[in-house]
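One record is set out below.
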Amino acid sequence: MKRMLMCAAIMAAAVMPGRAQSTQVTQVDHEKVAAALAKGGALVTAKDFTIQGIRRAGPGQVEIHEKETDIFYVTDGEATIVTGGTMVGGRQTAPNQLRGSDVKGGETRHLKKGDVIVIPAGVPHWFKEVPVSINYLTIKVIKP
């Protein structure tokens, strides 16, 4: 688990070149991480990033985060995700957050345990099919 969190920190730093690093060290106990990955839940919330465990048992809506890069590390299960293209039926649901019903012209990818995917801010993405369930660690790098 330590290796996974270290990898997450390295990935987050990689998408924030030139930004000053936080001087606050945060450690999350392995039991809390395991619980968040099993049921879903927040692990760390900061001004410029968040880390949470997600458990998804079905498809979702199309999402666009205008100021957040999503980094997913799949810890269990599998799903089909569509990235890119053009959102259909989009509406703003919160500041800098859009939700829609479909994607036209996106790229379909199959995610499974051990995979990492980085979805830059502004790119539509959609968990289109989740056969049983998928658990993943999400790191959101937030632009100012």
